[in-house]
Specification:
single chain; DUF2460; DUF2460 domain-containing protein
């Protein structure tokens, strides 16, 4: 599982598009009645970005973006993306103690909808590990957080104990296409009008 982080470039234009995507199976009877089944328990997101300027001189922004895309082999390999407006929680509840249970999935709530956090920021990513709390008390030992967001306690928390966390997270994504169009409009100035990412529901 790669820990490569999508590069941050100053030329990102205004107007990023983030599209929630669900998968629903619909069977329609002759009477017009429908039977619907939801295949996703939480959405995937398509993220459309555009860069007005990527400099190819000493700043080497073009080379960095092209290199990152090619190192992923287009849509083949996943990476981590830091959403500038959806990347952290404070005192987010992620569970309640259940008898004998030692593993719990980190989550984040957004607009009342709760979704799992599959890529918490960790020391291995150059950040800080999440702060885990049990009934508001910070756990300095006795628990670990895996790269895919599962918290494992050495001893099961007390039944009914409120589990919460604070920290930052990434989105695990891949590129949607195997090609990208880089346009040169002036000497050492390039544009990437559109590049699309899609979030993943697994850890690969």
């Amino acid at each position: 599982m790669t820990a490569a982080i999508f590069p941050t470039m100053p030329g990102l234009k205004w107007g990023t598009v983030k599209t929630p995507m669900w998968s629903t199976g619909i069977q329609k009877a002759a009477s017009g009645r429908e039977l619907r089944g939801a295949f996703y328990s939480f959405p995937r997101y398509k993220i459309s970005l555009g860069y007005e300027v990527l400099r190819s001189g000493a700043q080497a922004e073009l080379q960095a973006m092209v290199g990152f895309f090619n190192a992923r082999k287009g849509s083949f390999e996943s990476f981590l993306y830091l959403d500038p407006e959806d990347n952290a929680v404070v005192n987010q509840q992620f569970g309640v103690g259940v008898s004998g249970q030692t593993q719990y999935q980190l989550v984040r709530a957004y607009g009342g909808n709760v979704e799992p956090v599959l890529a918490p920021q960790l020391v291995v990513h150059g950040g800080a590990d999440p702060v885990i709390m049990v009934n508001g008390v910070v756990q300095t030992s006795g628990c670990t957080v895996a790269e895919f967001g599962v918290v494992t306690f050495a001893s099961a928390p007390a039944v009914g104990a409120v589990l919460s966390w604070s920290g930052s997270y990434y989105w695990r994504c891949r590129f949607m296409q195997d090609s990208a169009d880089f346009d040169r409009f002036l000497y050492q100035l390039w544009a990437l009008k559109k590049i699309e990412l899609i979030t993943l529901k697994d850890t690969e």
